[in-house]
Amino acid sequence: MSSLIKFKIDGAECMAEAGTFIVEAARQNGIYIPTLCNMPGVKPKGSCRICTVRINGRLMTSCTTPVADGMEIESNSNDIKELRKSIVELMFVSGNHFCPACEKSGNCELQALGYLYQMMVPRYPYDFPNRGVDASSPKIIKDQNRCIQCKRCIKSIKDEQGRSYFAFRNRGNHLEVVLDEELAATMTDETAELAMKNCPVGSILVKEKGFATPIGKRKFDHQPIGSDIRV
Ligand code: SF4
Ligand code: FES
User: Fold this and answer.
1) 3-class DSSP string for 70-126
2) What is the model's pTM?
3) Which ligand is nearest to the CA of 110?
4) Distance from the CA of 69 to the center of ligand 1, in angstroms?
5) Is 204 close to ligand 2, i.e. is its CB under 6 Å away?
6) d(C-alpha 121, C-alpha 113), whole Å
7) Domain annotation for the chain: domains and CATH numbers
8) What is the pLDDT of residues 57-78, one digit of tens each?
9) Relative to the alpha carbon of 24, which ligand is closest?
């Protein structure tokens, strides 16, 4: 039996199955809510907070909050857009996201959100970290300076036994996402491509391959992020 419920996003009447997370329910109704740590098929964990919305006066992460009947969700107000822009800016200053030199430029979700929220120069001081680049794996390059620690690679890139190719190492300021050396040696070309695709930024790059799609012809060069969802 269907359990469709009604709710509103920015005043628009929407419907979805009870229990659907707001991000997904919005998508089903042609409304885009930005995500970074969340991706379809992976259990949400609410770490990046870019999907923040307001429900009954409270800010909540919409990737981890299920819709409820009669819920009124605010996603497009100026203060929420400003909050999201600040999150993007903070990510830019805490890593080295030098877009013109990145193979992910034009396919990068962080860069695309920078454009969406019209980020010019970040309002916060740059960290200019020097976290290094691991090129020891046969298939991929792992650039730690661009990693936003979203965990999408850890959750989605696994071998046939369900073992993850990526893992967290260290804690606090030294926390980083690293590649399991042993597993990395067995990584196929397809898995390497998928890892690069699932990383929302340019922290995972396939080795010995660049500019197969030229700059200017990549996904977000043509259309803003989320435009495939909006009706
Ligand atoms: S490598 Fe990419 S997918 Fe993995 S945690 Fe870092 S930013 Fe996320
Ligand atoms: S996408 Fe919801 S917290 Fe990251």
Assistant:
1) CCEEECCCHHHHHHHHHHHHHHHHHCCCCHHHCCCCCCCHHHHHHHHCCCCCCCCCC
2) 0.95
3) 1
4) 35
5) no
6) 14
7) 4-76 (3.10.20.740), 84-208 (3.30.70.20)
8) 999 999 999 999 999 999 999 9
9) 2
